[in-house]
Design the sequence.
């Protein structure tokens, strides 16, 4: 796992330290040819996924660094994403292959989340394979998402595969050049042993809301650099937990 993080961070630092005159000269051609790329890194006060703190520290602050590299061509894209807690409590490396067209986005992701196990030594113990389908309305800034675990340590007590899923609706309203406000509602549509648990780690049964989120953000431009800043309030009704998350990042791309 550390090897993957080192490679990703090296690519990020090398890109930051390299003059972007070459890219600047080809950005227009790249866009016209359908080629897209981006490199970014965020520092966030905590990593909350679907309404759950992944480091499971119970602390308000559990800072993470989250580098990301993405390349795409005419709707097809590949993304490498990592999150690492400063205190070592959590580490995750994701590889996503997806395709976007006419508001639809279909992707398959490999989540590597157990850094105590070698990368492919025990796939079910350290990985999960997830499919995600989302649709963003063209004239109304609403995104609907459905995600399902295809391969994971994800079984009912009977031994039957659960295909744990997550559904989400997210609405963003932009206030001219001031900031964007995003409201998100996420839930487990049925019993999901892969991820939807109570405070004691027991599987919650049936339908459960887990992610009620309200966020405000803005992107600042500085030459070829974009600096996104956001703050979010997140409430998980299933376990009655509140989170406040501050995120600051830097991004390059065409």
Sequence:
């Amino acid at each position: 796992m550390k090897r993957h993080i080192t490679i990703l961070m090296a690519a990020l630092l090398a890109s930051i330290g390299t003059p972007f005159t070459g890219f600047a000269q080809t950005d227009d051609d790249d866009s016209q040819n359908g080629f897209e790329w981006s490199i970014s890194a965020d520092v966030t006060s905590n990593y909350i996924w679907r309404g759950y703190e992944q480091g499971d520290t119970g602390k308000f602050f559990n800072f993470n660094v989250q580098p990301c590299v993405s390349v795409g061509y005419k709707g097809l894209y590949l993304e490498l994403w990592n999150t690492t807690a400063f205190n070592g409590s959590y580490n995750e490396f994701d590889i996503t292959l997806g395709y976007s067209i006419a508001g639809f986005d279909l992707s398959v992701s490999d989540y590597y989340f157990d850094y105590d196990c070698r990368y492919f030594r025990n796939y079910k113990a350290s990985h999960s394979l997830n499919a995600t389908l989302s649709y963003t309305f063209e004239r109304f800034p609403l995104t609907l998402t459905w995600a399902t675990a295809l391969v994971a340590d994800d079984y009912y007590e009977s031994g039957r595969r659960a295909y744990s899923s997550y559904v989400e609706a997210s609405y963003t309203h932009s206030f001219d050049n001031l900031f964007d406000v995003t409201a998100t509602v996420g839930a487990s549509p049925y019993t999901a042993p892969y991820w939807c648990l109570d405070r004691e780690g027991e599987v919650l049964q049936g339908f459960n809301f887990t992610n009620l989120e309200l966020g405000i953000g803005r992107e600042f431009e500085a030459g070829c650099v974009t600096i996104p800043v956001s703050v979010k309030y997140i409430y998980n009704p299933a376990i009655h937990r509140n989170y406040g998350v501050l995120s600051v990042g830097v991004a390059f791309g065409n």
Summary: The CA atoms of residues 134 and 145 lie 4 Å apart. The chain has three helices and 14 strands. The helical segments are 2-17, 21-33, 123-126.
